[in-house]
């Protein structure tokens, strides 16, 4: 498909790199469907010998890793979407990692000096040029301020934005091709997935956005000293540099250090759950990737959160739907579960019998206590995929966060039941929504909406009257059996036309022909009259 090459002319070099990598890893279906094999000046090459024996998901995973950060992020998103992909694909994509070899200090230093306005050695009392972490987007360094505080300095990798922006443009075009070439993929909303990916990556490319996210979440727990967020040092932050407090915590999966620190793991699991659900269900904004490296155990049974490049947001309506879902799961209500799923996915014509059987099988397979939330949510999204339903993106992000958080809590307490632990937060959310103040707020919102609609009504009526006067109101009506009505109208019109001709002949032309006294004209006129009357009789019988 040469159209791809023309649309992506500005990114032809990157497109050629992508095509070469995909062909090299034998990802033939994607290459052929997107028309990449026919790009001008593309080197002719065959798949690498070391990948020919691998499965298609394995080849794709290796190709994604070779393609760089944009594709790695997209692969990681897909790994958390069992509503879109089968287990063979999600399990393979879960192996994707963004840990890469660090950029040499001499390459990072000029950019960092430019952003800080001076050398790191001048800004900081101590600065370790060996990174403590290196990912596909940024590298992290330890440092100490002149005032004594230990900090981390996060620095974007150089020249990254240009590559990612080119990738996003090409992937957006690829999503349009997918919807055109694979109509059955339209339900997965590939363009919406690309929009979400672009939004997330653009957020990660601006470290000021991460700093704002950190402070936004920290405000939720203001006044609580058992939930810790790092302090942001704004004077040294910019789009490419983030300086924040160093939180020296213990990963929840480090059993030896947790035991040595005297951490109460069950208490920590409950606090972590309360914090996550407080963010998601009460406030509607939450940490979207609470893996063991981002949730740290601190002395005194405190819990600290770090890394806020991506956060999730839930509208009030979504939060209400989530409460209904939790209720349906706990009550083993298959019909309620099915109703929530249909409401979320917006599906209008699913196989209802198949969906009902799937929902019933789902509640029966998760009837034991305690419930494994990670397994419950994964199976729920699998049920959606098997019934050709796709989850909304915001809920997919929440489910990924819940599954990840559930895994962390199970490291702390193998018998952890997140559903039971969620009880206090769910009750608090319900009390907030259905308290007098909550109902009053809903009533006020309804009143405002009705007032707004009422205030617009006179304008709408006036506009309709103007359109009627101008004859510009168009009404579209779909009538079943319209073809029969049309044929009836056509026959009626024919009868009227013939009747008019016969009547005109009988009343106007015939007397004049008789006056002329020409026998031939009289004979012809009478024949026309008789034929016309006969035709009208036949039309009347064929109603």
Your description of this structure?
The protein has helices spanning about 1-5, 10-25, 30-35, 55-65, 70-80, 85-95, 105-115, 120-125, 160-180, 190-205, 205-220, 255-260, 265-285, 315-330, 335-345, 350-365, 375-385, 395-410, 420, 425-435, 435-470, 480-515, 520-540, and strands at about 125, 135, 140-145, 150-155, 225-230, 240-245, 285, 295-300, 300-305, 310-315. The chain contains 23 helices and ten strands. The protein is globular. The longest helix has about 35 residues, at about 435-470. The strands form three sheets. Strands 1, 2, 3, 4 and 6 form a five-stranded antiparallel β-sheet that branches. A three-stranded mixed β-sheet has the order 5-9-8, with helices on one face. A two-stranded antiparallel ribbon has the order 7-10. The protein has about 550 residues and is of the alpha+beta class. Helix 13 packs antiparallel against helix 18 and helix 20 (about 425-435) crosses helix 21 (about 435-470). Belongs to the protein kinase superfamily. ADCK protein kinase family. Keywords: Membrane, Transmembrane, Transmembrane helix. This is ABC1 atypical kinase-like domain-containing protein. It comes from Methylobacterium hispanicum.
């Amino acid at each position: 498909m040469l159209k791809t090459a023309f649309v992506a002319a500005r990114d032809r070099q990157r497109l050629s790199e992508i095509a070469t990598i995909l062909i090299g890893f034998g990802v033939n279906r994607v290459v052929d469907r997107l028309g990449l094999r026919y790009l001008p000046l593309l080197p002719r090459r065959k798949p690498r010998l070391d990948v020919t024996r691998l499965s298609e998901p394995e080849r794709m995973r290796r190709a994604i890793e070779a393609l760089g950060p944009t594709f790695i992020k997209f692969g990681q998103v897909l790994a958390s979407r069992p509503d879109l992909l089968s287990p063979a694909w999600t399990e393979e994509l879960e192996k994707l990692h963004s840990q890469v070899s660090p950029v040499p200090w001499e390459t990072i230093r000029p950019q960092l000096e430019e952003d800080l306005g001076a050398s790191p050695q001048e800004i900081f009392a101590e600065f370790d040029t060996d990174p403590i972490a290196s990912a596909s987007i940024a590298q992290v360094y330890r440092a100490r301020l002149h005032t004594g505080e230990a900090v981390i300095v996060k620095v974007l990798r150089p020249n990254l934005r240009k590559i990612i922006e080119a990738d996003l443009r090409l992937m957006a075009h690829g999503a349009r091709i997918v919807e055109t070439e694979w109509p059955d993929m339209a339900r997965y909303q590939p363009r919406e997935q690309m929009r979400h990916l672009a939004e997330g990556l653009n957020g990660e490319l601006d470290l000021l956005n991460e700093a704002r996210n950190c402070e936004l979440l920290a405000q939720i727990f203001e006044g609580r000293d058992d939930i810790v967020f790092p302090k942001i040092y704004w004077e040294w932050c910019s789009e490419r540099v983030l300086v924040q407090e160093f939180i020296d915590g213990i990963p929840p999966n480090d059993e030896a250090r947790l035991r040595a620190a005297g951490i109460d793991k069950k208490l920590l699991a409950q606090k972590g759950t309360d914090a996550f659900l407080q963010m998601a269900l009460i406030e509607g904004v939450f940490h979207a990737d609470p893996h063991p490296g981002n949730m740290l155990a601190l002395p005194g049974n405190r819990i600290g959160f770090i890394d806020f490049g991506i956060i999730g947001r839930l509208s009030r309506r979504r939060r209400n739907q989530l409460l209904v879902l939790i209720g349906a799961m706990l009550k083993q209500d298959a019909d309620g579960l099915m109703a929530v799923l249909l409401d979320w996915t917006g599906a209008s014509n699913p196989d209802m019998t198949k969906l009902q059987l799937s929902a019933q099988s789902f509640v029966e397979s998760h009837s034991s206590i305690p419930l494994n939330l990670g397994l419950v949510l994964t199976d729920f999204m699998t049920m959606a995929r098997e019934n050709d339903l796709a989850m909304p993106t915001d809920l997919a992000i929440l489910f990924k966060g819940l599954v990840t958080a559930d895994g962390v809590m199970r490291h702390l307490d193998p018998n952890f039941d997140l559903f039971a632990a969620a009880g206090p937060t769910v009750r608090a959310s319900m009390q907030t929504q259905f308290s007098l103040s909550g109902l009053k707020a809903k009533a006020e919102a309804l009143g405002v909406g009705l007032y707004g609609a009422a205030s617009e009504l006179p304008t709408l009526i006036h506009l309709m009257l103007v359109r009627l006067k101008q004859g510009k109101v168009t009404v579209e009506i779909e009538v079943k059996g319209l073809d029969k009505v049309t044929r009836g109208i056509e026959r009626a019109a024919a009868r009227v036309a013939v009747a008019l001709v016969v009547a005109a002949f009988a009343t106007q032309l015939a007397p004049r022909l008789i006056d002329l006294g020409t026998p031939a004209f009289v004979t012809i006129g009478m024949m026309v009259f008789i034929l016309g009357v006969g035709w009208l009789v036949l039309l009347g019988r064929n109603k």
